[in-house]
């Protein structure tokens, strides 16, 4: 499992968000969120920026990069 999958799941759980609600906040399709959660797709630049802006998630955290 990629680190971003765990981070996304945690954000959704902590904020009590469905896939649809989470997708709406980030401006992506619900299908895209599902692909992230199953490791079929990684968040793109715009989604990474939105995760940081909306939830304060550092990009390095998403991909398991330690400073």
Write up what this structure looks like.
- By secondary structure, the chain is mainly alpha-helical.
- Helices cover 64% and strands 0% of the residues.
- The protein has helices at residues 3-14, 19-26, 30-37, 45-55, 59-62.
- It is globular and about 30 Å long.
Enumerate how many helices there are, as a single number: 5
The N- and C-terminal alpha carbons lie at a distance of: 21 Å
Portion in helices: 55-70%
- CATH class designation: Mainly Alpha
CATH superfamily, by name, is lambda repressor-like DNA-binding domains
Radius of gyration from the alpha-carbon trace, in angstroms: 11 Å
Shape label: globular
Task: Please outline the helices and strands.
Blueprint: H1 3-14, H2 19-26, H3 30-37, H4 45-55, H5 59-62
Could you name the key traits of this structure?
434 Repressor (Amino-terminal Domain); 67 residues; 64% helix; mainly alpha; globular
Structure, briefly:
The protein has 67 residues and is mainly α. The protein has helices at residues 3-14, 19-26, 30-37, 45-55, 59-62. The model has no long low-confidence stretch (mean pLDDT 91).
């Amino acid at each position: 499992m990629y680190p971003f999958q765990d981070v996304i799941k945690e954000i959704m759980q902590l904020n009590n968000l469905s896939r649809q609600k989470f997708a709406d906040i980030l401006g992506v399709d619900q299908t895209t969120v599902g692909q992230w959660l199953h490791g079929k797709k990684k968040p793109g630049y715009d989604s990474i920026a939105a995760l940081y802006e909306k939830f304060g998630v550092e990009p390095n955290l998403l991909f398991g990069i330690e400073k």
